[in-house]
Amino acid sequence: MDEIKKNTNVISSEDGQNKCPKCGATDISVNSKTGKLRCNFCRFEFDSDIVEDKSPKDLEGIEIGAGASRIEADAQDQMTLKCQSCGAEVVIDTSSSTQAKCHWCRNTLSINNQIANGAVPDVILPFKVSKEDARSQIENFVGKRKFFAHPKFKQEFSTENINGVYLPYMIVDIKGHMDLAGEGQVTTRTYTVGSDDDKKTVHDVDVYKVARSFDIEIDDLTIESSSDKLDVSNNQKTNNIINAIMPFDTDKVVKYNSNYLKGYTSEKRDTNVEELEEICRLQGSDIARHSANSTLKKYDRGVRWDHEDFEISGQSWTAAYLPVWLYSYMQKKGDEKILHYVAVNARTKETMGSVPINMGKLFLISAIIEFFGLIIAIMISMIPKNDSDYGWLFLLSGVIFFAVKYMRYRNAGARHTYESETKYEVKNSQASDQKIRSMRGVESSAMASANNNELKGSRVTLDKDKVLNKTMDMVDNIIDKTKED
What one-character-per-residue DSSP string does 433-484 give? Predict the structure, then answer.
């Protein structure tokens, strides 16, 4: 992804010391408003080593940054640095910090060189959103979900305990080639056949043999490198909260400098490139397949890809720390503890979070809606010569309301839409569209086997019918959960 370019205004670290380029002091912090490093002695502000973007077109094979190298099982968290000011040796525990002060001369010592335990990334994206702005975002988010929030949560909610944290990510550039082949359908005519009770709408359809072939360069595909954030299968977690506040403006990253961590906490990477290669390949394939949709607009009924071949010829991996503001709340349910949190992207203010639900209140409101829906359904059925096919929806109005609200509070479907938000460039595109047959009187309004919007690198699909079916399948389980409260 990136090539480090030295900024001549910065004095580099030596044996753990970063010095101000103006006065030589080591007491350095970050100005969150400007993203620059600031000397706390002379107040001079300066840039860290900047990172020059490198085009994916130059990639061949696999390039892995020093901070993205494999985590060694026997890598030591305890490191000893020698202070260049007084000669004392100071131990830094990299499991909890990458900075310490010399106990003799009080000079600041920092770990900026990559060590094989996941503690030091290649690049870092400084905080841009202030704590006050983050608190406002969290308060607004929770305010919109307070109606069905648990009473104890509403009583105890306070943004005083929000923390700034750097979370570990991998930034990946990909150079690849995609071959797609299958069938697409185009509606040529829609009309009504039959009469009275036998009346129905049908379609005439042309079927095409469709093929697409192109090169693609994907820039800054960003993947969580914490195994806990990658695991969305745990039913005690509210789905994809951290994932949903992406993307970050990763084109603004700077070379890692531990001074950026002052006042914030950080989480170590615990996954290796080998463990992330499959999700990277799948998401890269999704981006390529999604990019082809811009050439398929005439296929209003959809396209079914029967053959897909995504080959990666070059890729680069860069370990990064990206900034997030977090509010956390521990909900106790008997002996069980459930962690809820609200996250704010500390660059864009994008916010997503989890709020514990007052299941009793949600169930009661849903029951009231279901009662009135039942009355309306009965009234509709009593109307003479009523041809409406939607009266049954009122019979399920309470159930649908319950499912929609529950899934909203559980953030079902909340995720980073990497297939459209990741930057990419398509080159050398070739297309083939050949009509192979026509069909008459087709009753379905869409191609049932269409998969051009399918996502393999995400647990969420763009297929709205599948999402609805999944919602209805969950209804019974959701109602059972109310008994626990």
Answer: EEEEEEEEEE--SS-TT--TT--SSSS--S-HHHHHHHHHHHHHHHHHHHTT
